[in-house]
Amino acid sequence: MNRSRGLWADAGRRLAANRAAVASLVILALLCVLAAVGPAFSAYAPDELDWEMMGVPPELGSGHWLGTDRLGRDLFVRTLHGARVSLAIALLATLVSLLIGVTWGAVAGYAGGRADALLMRFVDVLYALPHIFFVIVLTVVFDRSPMLLFIAIGAVGWLTMARVVRGQAMALMQREFVEAAIASGAGPSRIIFRHVVPNLLGTVIIYATLMIPQMILIESFLSFLGIGIQEPLASLGNLIADGAAEMETAPWILLVPATCLVIIVFCFNFLGDGLRDALDPRER
Amino acid sequence: MNRVVDVQQLNVRFPLDGGRWLSRRWLTAVDGVSFALSRGETLGVVGESGCGKSSLGRALLGLVPIHSGTILLNGARVDGASPASLRRLRRNAQMVFQDPSGSLDPRMTVGQSVAEPLEIFEPGLGSSEVRSRIATALEQVGLAPEHADRYPHEFSGGQCQRIGIARAVILRPTVVVCDEPVSALDVSVQGQVMNLLARLRAELGLAYVFISHNLAVVRHLSSSVLVMYLGRTMEHAPRDELYDRPLHPYTRALLDAVPAPEPGGKSRRLPASIGGELPSPLSPPAGCVFASRCPHAQDRCKEARPALEEARPGHRVACHRWREWTGGLAPRPDA
């Protein structure tokens, strides 16, 4: 990102000293690796039905380490697949909302005045749309697809990011080094992308980290309602929906994906907190 | 062509929030200021905070809206210039800011900050050429070329101001606007930076517009001094003329406010008669703007605005009563 010295290096050192954040980072890294390669170690495929073993509880000897669901599908493999899908959607949606939101907000904050008012009223209008209904309408008009879900989630995310970035950018525009750059002859794009954006990256990273778990939760929520990821594809949301139906007779079907979701959300929140402490703008 | 700055009847106004276009109220920060400056000269601009001296400096680079009047910078118009031509003008006119560390981008290395004007105006330069220009600029301000790879927070205030000066002179401009460049620094460092500015002026043939609230600081460097109050010129004279023979009561009060250099020497605060605050620039008084605080004010001072008249060659003063209160052209009584 930057040369690994100066403010970024300081922030890295502070983050490394935060045990909860480091532990969260390690757990998230392990989980990502597990989601990527873990299913390969199991003898079962995510959509494979094991007719001999339907709805068995977790047991190491059976080969179904975390049990199976009512149809005999291996929960270990399906949960990891679900985590993979949920994480991928959340990360992609966050990345896209980052790109749109940061550019949108930085331009609004830089320009000020009427351009700012126009850009931010557009954001306000989109904010006012009831998103869940909007998504439901979309799923009726178009096919249900992960792409649609991804668009729906991303559309929510960048609005918040644009608002946060715009506020930060407005504050930065008042700083003397921005005026110094203008006095040096810098044009608008140089001011925005060389001076304003690098200086609000710390805040953006914090928000992005805290946004990822929200994205996962929205994805899970939509999938839980049945308008997100569809069977036989697994996501944490539809796995939890499955499990909720069997909660009284086979609680592990709910507990396994739910635990996974909680761990992911928890770790991202801890990491975001740690980053906030490490990159705290007040210290500068 | 020697004259690098020529300002005529400059007015700078800022729109106030709230009002619509027609009923919008304006804050007049600079009101009818004129001066000219040649290569190697320095104009000291002095006044209290809020008197418009910073707005004047920023107007020279087109950083604030110019309401009326003309500014010629190296013969090119600043007022009414398009954003693109304003940017081109800044090749020859740079600025040094008050807050040494605040004027450097904390995410950029010192080298990147110093090289920024170079990147903008000479984008074709190779990286080795850029590095050697950075090294030259840093050496000119008394820093080592190795400092280029460090970040601003690793430097002291005085060093940061040197970096800011290096950035201002790397393009070899003709004019540098210094906006209170030493007022945030320790007194011992102030002297060093002032000497550096004097040396650079001799080496590079710069012209400075040196803004300060302190007449003592300006004296060292200036060839002439302009005293401002509430956006207007009170007095404008060659340096020695102004310090030895102030013709405006406000200049006199500012001079009296400078503490004596040696302990036990004559040191006087602002006379009690010039207590109080600046009048609001939103509703400036009808007559002389300084009348409310002037120990010599009479009725006509509060009614008619004094013209800026040339009392002596090159010495302009805006006071109805300069003859009376100075007793003709007598020198300063205690000078």
Question: Topology, please?
Answer:
The complex is a heterodimer of chains A (284) and B (335).
Chain A: H1 6-16, H2 19-41, H3 75-111, H4 113-128, H5 131-141, H6 146-173, H7 176-183, H8 188-225, H9 236-245, H10 252-279
Helix pairs in contact in A: 1-10, 2-3, 2-10, 3-4, 3-6, 3-8, 3-9, 3-10, 4-6, 5-6, 6-8, 8-9, 8-10, 9-10
Chain B: E1 3-15, E2 26-38, E3 42-46, H1 53-60, E4 66-73, E5 76-77, H2 83-89, E6 93-96, H3 110-121, H4 127-140, H5 157-169, E7 175-179, H6 187-204, E8 207-212, H7 215-221, E9 224-229, E10 232-238, H8 239-244, H9 249-257, H10 299-303, E11 309-312, E12 315-317, H11 322-326
Parallel strand pairs in B: 3-8, 3-9, 6-7, 7-8
Antiparallel strand pairs in B: 1-2, 1-4, 4-5, 9-10, 10-12, 11-12
Task: Explain the overall architecture.
The complex is a heterodimer of chains A (284) and B (335). Chain A has 284 residues and is mainly α. Chain A has one domain: MetI-like (MetI-like fold), CATH 1.10.3720.10. In chain A, 74% of the residues lie in helices and 0% in strands. Chain B is of the alpha/beta class and 335 residues long. Chain B is 31% helix and 23% strand. Chain B contains eleven helices and twelve strands. Chain B is globular. The relative contact order of chain B is 0.13. The mean pLDDT of chain B is 87. At the A-B interface, helix 7 and helix 8 of A face helix 3 of B.
The CATH superfamily of chain A is known as MetI-like
Low-confidence stretches of chain A: none
State the distance separating the first and last CA atoms of chain A.
19 Å
The helix content of chain B is: 25-40%
Instruction: Please identify which CATH superfamily of chain B we are dealing with.
Output: P-loop containing nucleotide triphosphate hydrolases
- Helical stretch tally of chain B: 11
The beta-strand count of chain B equals 12
Number of helices of chain A: 10
Quote the beta fraction of chain B: 15-25%
Secondary structure: number of strands of chain A = 0
Q: For the largest sheet of chain B, list the strands in their spatial order.
A: 6-7-8-3-9-10-12-11
Q: Do you know the CATH topology of chain B?
A: Rossmann fold
Radius of gyration of chain B: 21 Å
Which CATH top level class of chain B fits? Alpha Beta
